[in-house]
Write a structure and sequence with these properties.
The chain is an alpha/beta fold. It contains 9 helices and 20 strands. The chain folds into 2 domains: 13-358, Glycosidases (TIM Barrel, Alpha-Beta Barrel); 364-450, Sandwich (Immunoglobulin-like). The protein has an 8-stranded parallel β-barrel, surrounded by 5 helices. The relative contact order is 0.11. Its cofactor is Ca(2+).
Length: 452
Amino acid sequence: PAAAAPSGTKKVIAQLFEWNWPSVASECTSVLGPKGYGYVQVSPPQEHVKGNPWWLAYQPVSYRVESRKGTRAQFQSMVNTCHAAGVKVIVDAVINHMSGQDNGGTGWAGSSYGHYDYPGSYQTQDFHHCGRNGGDDIVNYNDRYEVQNCELVNLADLRTESDYVRSKLAGYLNDLLSLGVDGFRLDASKHMPAADIAAIKGKLSRSAYVVQEVIYGAGEPIQPTEYTGNGDVHEFRYGKDLARMFNSERLAYLRNFGEAWGYLPTGSAAVFVDNHDTQRDGGVLTYRNGGTYALANAFMLAWPYGSPTVMSSFTFSSRDQGPPSDADNKTLNTTCYSGWQCEHRWRVIANMVAFNNATQGAAVANWYDNGYQHIAFSRAGKGYLTINDEDFAVTGRSYYAGLPAGRYCDVIHGDFSNGSCSGPVITVDSSGWFAANINAHDAVAVHIGAKL
Ligand code: LAG
Ligand code: CA
């Protein structure tokens, strides 16, 4: 079955993790639209339990669109502003569960709740109690039933097999669609049978892009491929393997990166270097890796496997730390300094979004590697990237780009705008070759969208 992969030429998603709605709106206008991002993925917008940690957003208490990130009116205005800037909006939708605190209380927007009691939404009969492991928690990922019917870290697990629950969930998603939302990242998808997701999707008022979070686990009974009939699926092996190639193996091995590595079919895969969970859990490259992180993102944005998401973080020194917030834990406006990392604005990353757009549909050609950490490839006739992650500069050599002759902006080191380049210019000769020196741990990228 065909997945509803992002269509059109602007496929890149920016995950503006925990940004508030006014900040997302202004970023759509000032950066995401102009740089060519196709989508923004926002953090969960529904009412959640109160407190400081970022992960409170993953504990819904009602489906009111009112959270530390803003009001319903601000959310609506953000969607409209992003659309006007040519950027579509994907919502992180938490539909497997409600809150996890054993004690109830009052949610962010004032709704009272208890564990398994959410007035107006769900009562105790709407939740699973798997009767295992003492507290209903998932322990054994080798047991399909347990993964889908027990509780993920004590979070009240919805009976997604029930028509009532499905209708409530579809009601929430349809409300978001009525606000103009374009798609959903379905949180904790592995913890819901694919058929339950299909049934919920079947109740939606119109079509929407869907990407499901199903973390691959070797040998587990629930596999990401089960979910491709519903839409895209996150390929978690991608970021881990990419980190390993950069950290301890060889970039040369990337020449067949993708399906040949046992991954999901490219048309169903959603990929990222890191996301908000993996950047905390380790084993991937993150903003802390600086230049190496930029190079990994450049590779992802140039390489035609899956649909890429660029992470945009707030900096953190402990796992639970929430985003910059006021005394009431209301999220502050994003500044891109003092606490906000804004990787999606880094020159290399932001400029490679336009490379991705300009090279859609072009196959990989002219692969080169030195057997180790220096690689190069073109996207036939549209663009060329070479990464030198050796500890030494590579000088005095030429590269066969196979591009039309002319002068191109090296978008790794310069910005292209209004027909001019703020950095070095690469000249491709009439045979498709160019000469360049590449520093250690550096890259050069050119594409037909940034031709002088
Ligand atoms: C996800 N995908 O499947 C999210 O990407 C991930 O960030 C969510 O976990 C998880 N599923 C549930 O939506 C996050 C934090 C957890 C946090 C949970 C609920 O990574 O650490 O659990 O959200 O807020 C926290 C505590 C747990 C506690 C639980 C319930 O860490 O110890 O049991 O809250 O109170
Ligand atoms: Ca479940």
